[in-house]
């Protein structure tokens, strides 16, 4: 009986305190980062890409996704639709494949099957290191203005096409961009 009680108390203790030390829901660290991390790499079409891409657009939605992530897969078609629709408003969408180095073949297959045409990047180790400081998990999205500044709230978890559209339109308005 004492053994069962001890095991139950130990299990309860682990459940209660394990969550306390790892929860980053408020993301205090993410709030410290005002600009997107510096990077220089190539996209999945072997085109060079760097922070300069932000200067070309009034707003860029950067979506970090993983090949193993079902919610990520679910929202990719919405991002594809928005990438086409929002071009007229000078909005860009970039995907960063969080496990792209390990799952490059899977990532390319998924992108082909889903007919994704928006820019996707297999990040350098340094870029992923910087992003891990900012993100809880995937999918996560952030919005970057022409100056490379992160604007709006960090989005953790999948969103619908309509939710992203509303966020983008709201941020364009806040950034003072004529629509």
Automatic annotation (TrEMBL):
Its main location: other. It holds the Pfam family Redoxin. It is found in: Cell envelope. GO terms for molecular function: oxidoreductase activity. InterPro entries: Redoxin, Thioredoxin-like_sf, Thioredoxin_CS, Thioredoxin_domain, Thioredoxin_ResA/DsbE_sf. PROSITE patterns: PROKAR_LIPOPROTEIN, THIOREDOXIN_1, THIOREDOXIN_2. Coiled coil: none annotated. GO terms for cellular component: cell envelope. One of its GO terms (biological process) is cytochrome complex assembly. Keywords: Cytochrome c-type biogenesis, Disulfide bond, Redox-active center, Signal-anchor, Transmembrane. This is Thiol-disulfide oxidoreductase ResA. It comes from Aneurinibacillus soli. The gene is resA_3.
């Amino acid at each position: 009986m004492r053994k069962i009680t001890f095991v139950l108390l130990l299990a309860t203790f682990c459940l209660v305190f394990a969550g306390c030390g790892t929860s980053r829901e408020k993301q205090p660290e993410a709030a410290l980062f005002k600009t997107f991390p510096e990077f220089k790499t190539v996209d999945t079409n072997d085109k060079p890409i760097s922070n300069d891409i932000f200067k070309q657009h009034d707003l860029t939605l950067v979506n970090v996704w993983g090949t193993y992530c079902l919610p990520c897969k679910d929202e990719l078609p919405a991002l594809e639709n928005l990438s086409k629709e929002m071009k007229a408003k000078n909005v860009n969408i970039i995907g960063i494949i969080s496990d792209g180095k390990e799952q490059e073949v899977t990532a390319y297959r998924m992108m082909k099957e889903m007919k994704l045409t928006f820019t996707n990047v297999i990040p350098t180790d340094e870029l992923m290191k910087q992003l891990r400081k900012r993100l809880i998990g995937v999918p996560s999205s952030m919005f970057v203005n022409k100056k490379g500044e992160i604007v709006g709230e960090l989005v953790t978890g999948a969103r619908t096409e309509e939710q992203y559209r509303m966020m983008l339109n709201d941020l364009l308005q806040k950034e003072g961009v004529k629509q």
